[in-house]
Design goal:
The structure is a homodimer of 127-residue chains. Chain A has 127 residues and is α+β, with helices and mostly antiparallel strands. Chain A is built from four helices and five strands. The first copy, chain A, has two domains: 1-69, Arc Repressor Mutant, subunit A (Orthogonal Bundle), CATH 1.10.10.10; 71-127, Dna Ligase, domain 1, CATH 3.30.1490.190. Helix content of chain A is 32%, strand content 20%. In chain A, helix 2 packs across helix 3 (37-49). In chain A, 28% of the residues are buried. Chain A binds a DNA duplex (25 and 25 nucleotides) through helix 3.
Chain lengths: 127, 127
DNA sequence: CTACATGCAAATGCTTTGCAACCTA
DNA sequence: TAGGTTGCAAAGCATTTGCATGTAG
């Protein structure tokens, strides 16, 4: 547990915005001005691998990270990329519907809502 | 409607494997040896923008393309990246559950199952 | 004829990796 | 002190873009 890793965990826990690696980098650098991006990526990968945090594989080009490792759904703004938790309970029965209907061994599922966040909704109205 | 665009549409319709841009490139090049990757990307973007095909924003690093522009779900092999259609009907009521519960203007949702394809399941067993 | 499309190559953006120095347990 | 970790920089991979040329309508 290095200072870098500890700080990464801390900034994640202080941020509900599901930051990207770059955003984590900026936040950590406020406290440890010499961290490198490589260290950020390595630790985010390591922490999500060990289940302490969650790597979000959602639409768009960049990955985001969630301090909450529990399964839950998200909603993403298609315009600005903002991501929030979706207030809906996990659908536990969903995978049952696929048993016998697919040739795959099912591991899990991800559900992502897309929409416009308040700020972008407002802009869209005025256009 | 150039020969390039026509051929891209044709190879997509002959392929149920949800190919990546690179795979489309390889398939088109069998018929038009001089196509460029840039043309592939430009046309895939254009065709999905006009609703003739569908761009899949699913987990993993690369985008895949689907000749079928209708909403449907997919299942992806976490080991080899193979993607198939998931035999489950779209959940039309899902977004209703979020109305009033989120600050977003909801546009839609994507649901992706993950698992192991038959080939990768077999390998996993023998490990 | 004119606007759009193409091929080529360079550029971009995000992420990963090699390596020598450094630090933690 | 032994092994993991860091900073730095270069490399990697998918995708996008600028530009001169070519082609469809």
């Amino acid at each position: 547990m290095t200072p870098q890793r500890k700080t990464i965990l801390e900034v994640l826990h202080q941020d509900n915005a599901h930051p990207s690696a770059d955003e984590v980098y900026a936040l950590v650098r406020e406290r440890l001005p010499n961290v490198s991006l490589g260290t950020i990526y390595r630790n985010l990968e390591l922490l999500s691998g060990s289940g302490e945090i969650q790597k979000l594989e959602i639409g768009g080009t960049i990955k985001r990270y969630d301090w909450n490792p529990k399964k839950h759904y998200h909603i993403r703004c298609t315009r600005c990329g903002r991501v929030d938790d979706a207030p809906i309970a996990p659908l536990k029965q969903l995978e049952n519907e696929l048993y016998g209907a697919t040739i795959y061994t099912i591991i899990g599922h991800t559900l992502e809502f897309v929409g416009l966040c308040p700020a972008c909704s407002k802009q869209a109205d005025s256009v």
